[in-house]
Structures are given as C-alpha cells and as structure tokens.
Design goal:
Layout (H helix, E strand, L loop, with lengths): L7 H15 L3 H21 L6 H4 E7 L5 E2 L2 H13 L4 E10 L2 E11 L13 E13 L2 E9 L1 H7 L6
Parallel strand pairs: 1-6
Antiparallel strand pairs: 1-2, 3-4, 4-5, 5-6
Length: 163
C-alpha cells in the first residue's frame, strides 16, 4: 500500500480554482494593461463615457503631454471638448504594445467637424488625426499619460493653417 501526500488534493484544487489569479505572470499583467488602454480609447474617447475616468485613471493622474496637467478633470475636459467638436468621434487602435507597466498605442481618430475645435467653426468635413499615447499603469489605473498627435494636420483640416 502506497502512502499518499495529504496535501496533494488541496493544492491541486487551489491550482485548479485560483491558479491563473493567484499565480499570474508578467504577460498577464501586460495583457490586463492593454485591455485597460483599449477601454480608455473605446469607452471614454469613442463612446464618451466620462464616468469611467474616475474608475480607470488614478487620483493623482498626470497628463505629461504638451498642454497637459494633473488630475482626472483634464481628461474629462479634453474628451468633452473633442466630442463636442466631433460628436461621432471614433478612435481605431492601429497598434498596441505592452511591457511591464507601460502600454504604447498608435491610433487613428476620425470624426465629423460639427462643433468648434480650437476656435474653428464647424465645417461638416470629416477629420482624421493620427497619434501615439504611452500609458504608465499602476494598480489597474492610468497613472501617467504621454500623448502626441498630429496637431498641425488637424489644424490644416480645420482650415486654421494653409496646406
């Protein structure tokens, strides 16, 4: 008669039930961070769900982009402004990469110029802007964001600068 390990069954059950959660890998964290970045673009920017800003962005969030600042209000104001100027704003993620706590997203934003943007009166024209955002994510929330997009190209489309 073989002697069995009294811990074999409890350990096996723990691994079966909680294994992926209890023993997550760095790749799982990267995938979770990419999912968070997708939610920012899909739900906040493209759908205008500003209530999610408080959930997805840290209390001490920093927008380290040109014209950025501190706090969640800066994101809410920017999204509201973009969506006022282009109510049908849609952002398509072209590429997304993650390593550890950073996520890089290359995107294309599209919408119809139906409201004022940068002081330009509505033209009714389709506008397209490409950009890149880098997110620093901590504890499941965006802590820092760096964004660069083609501002000059946007201003040309709005008629603020000659082509």
């Amino acid at each position: 008669m073989r002697k069995h390990n009294q811990w074999a069954l409890p350990v096996a059950l723990i691994l079966l039930v909680a294994g992926p959660v209890a023993f997550s890998t760095g790749q799982d964290k990267s995938e979770q961070n990419k999912a968070l970045a997708r939610r920012v673009f899909d739900e906040i920017y493209s759908q205008g769900k500003l209530d999610l800003v408080d959930q997805l962005y840290a209390d001490d969030f920093v927008d380290d982009s040109p014209g950025g600042g501190r706090g969640r209000a800066i994101i809410k104001t920017a999204v509201a402004s973009f969506r006022k100027g282009a109510p049908d704003l849609r952002i398509d993620i072209e590429d997304i990469f993650a390593q550890d706590d950073k996520v890089v997203v290359r995107y294309t934003a599209r919408g119809t110029h139906k409201g004022e943007i940068f002081g330009a009166a509505p033209t009714g024209k389709q506008i397209t802007v490409r950009g890149i955002t880098i997110f620093l994510i901590s504890a499941g929330q965006v802590k820092v964001e760096w964004t660069e997009y083609d501002r000059l190209g946007l201003m040309r489309q709005l008629g603020l600068f000659p082509s």
